[in-house]
Amino acid sequence: MSDPRHLNRIAYFAAVVETGSFTAAAARLGITKAVVSQQVAKLEEEVGASLLVRTTRKVRPTEAGLAFHRRCVVILREAEDAFGELAETAAAPSGLLRLTAPFDYGVAVVVPAIAAFVAAHPACKADMALSDQSLDLVGGTFDLAIRVGWLADISLQARQFGSFRQLLVGTPALAARIDEGAGPEDIAALPFVANTVLRNPLTWQLTAATGEVRTVSPRASIALDATFAVREAVREGAGLSVLPDYCVADDLASGRLVRLLPGWSLPPGGIHAVFPAARFRPTKVRAFVDLLTERERRRMAG
User: Fold this and answer.
1) Is 302 helix (H, G, I), strand (E, B) or coil?
2) 30 and 17 in contact (C-beta within 8 Å)?
3) Interacting residues of 87 by C-beta distance below 8 A, sequence separation 6+
4) 0.85 cut: is pTM over it?
5) pLDDT digits (tens, 9 = 90+) for 222-241
6) Which of 62, 71, 191, 211 could, after both became Cys, cross-link 239 (CB 3.0–4.6 A)?
């Protein structure tokens, strides 16, 4: 079946099955009824089976024809996607990029990336929904979702393009209340700002350089449902908390906040690009994820 005419014959046959007549199939394909009839007859000769039952009123598939049509639909879809992907690969990014991202990472990292992307590709526009909820990709509203942390649904089409560290931070004044050589259990009595967006905001597992693991459960003096709100409360000295590195990088560099218990680390998290189910990704999506990946690489290196 290496002859390219076979693909045309499959398309003609599928059109006849789906429209119920040679005349309607020819109209859909923009060719003559005689060509459709002739090519389908040749297809039947090649496969050695009757694929259609022809009557004066209608054409219907045989049992073998039904089974063959199911396979033909897949073949034609694959061919269409292959040509589409090839065209997208050759084309420059264009059109509206619709994406969603968590509020904190979206503001801190994705928004600057979008600004750079649109500047580099003037034929593109961007529309982003900032939400700490995992918005649904099935409905076709978004081309891409950025998810931070740990993916609950392993069936998602996802690519991890970065990672982040979780850091226990507080003001210098709060750090002064922690004795040198203190361990995780020593912070349990200090005021803590809980981030209720997290699944377990009051249970943290810390690991020492030696591999020792300890779990601490601080008591919340304040509970907030947004990461930036938690950061603001920590900045004001309301308590210590665990925050992602991309949220507190400037505060740590300026000394406004300090890392507490630096000899202990928290589990790192992943940063993922999640895609709707599709056989290929538009150029605009691939180009933006590549740009975001490079910026994330530089952020981590810095």
Assistant:
1) coil
2) no
3) none
4) no
5) 999 999 999 999 999 999 99
6) 191
Mean pLDDT, rounded, of the chain: 88
Picking from 296, 231, 294, 293, the residue whose alpha carbon sits closest to that of residue 257 is 231
**CB neighbour list of residue 269: distance below 8 Å, 6 or more residues apart:** 148, 149, 150, 163, 164, 166, 244
Kind plus residue range of the DSSP H or E element containing 111: helix 111-120
b (16+ CB within 10 A) / e for 190-219: bbbbbbebbeebeebebeeeeeeeeebebe
Residue from 132, 276, 99 nearest 198 by CA: 132
Task: Report the number of secondary-structure helices (H) and strands (E) in the chain.
Answer: 10, 15
Nearest to 204 by CA among 193, 215, 212: 215
Neighbours of 259 (CB within 10 A): 15
CB 103 within 8 A of CB 131: yes
- Look at residues 252, 297, 290 and name the one whose alpha carbon lies nearest to residue 273: 290
